[in-house]
Design a protein that fits this description.
Layout (H helix, E strand, L loop, with lengths): L1 E4 L2 E4 L3 H20 L5 H20 L1 H4 L18
Antiparallel strand pairs: 1-2
Length: about 80
Amino acid sequence: PVLRRRDRFYVDLRCPPRGIVLATVVAFLFGLIAVRSSGIYFLMITLALGMVVYALANQNRSFFGGHTGILGIRPRNSSVMR
């Protein structure tokens, strides 16, 4: 979640570890499926799993925003970005 204080946005510090754990669990589950095959079948299963993730993210437009990306995240006000 993004916290708002005095027109500046701060990222909740619990989000990055949660994202890392979630990505690790998903990669482990995909690995369990893909590691059972070899050769061209490994390549095809890996590509198919990637397309499943793409399709799920594209269909859930309320959170992921489809092709436009995740909505509601703004960059911090800093001198570098001006």
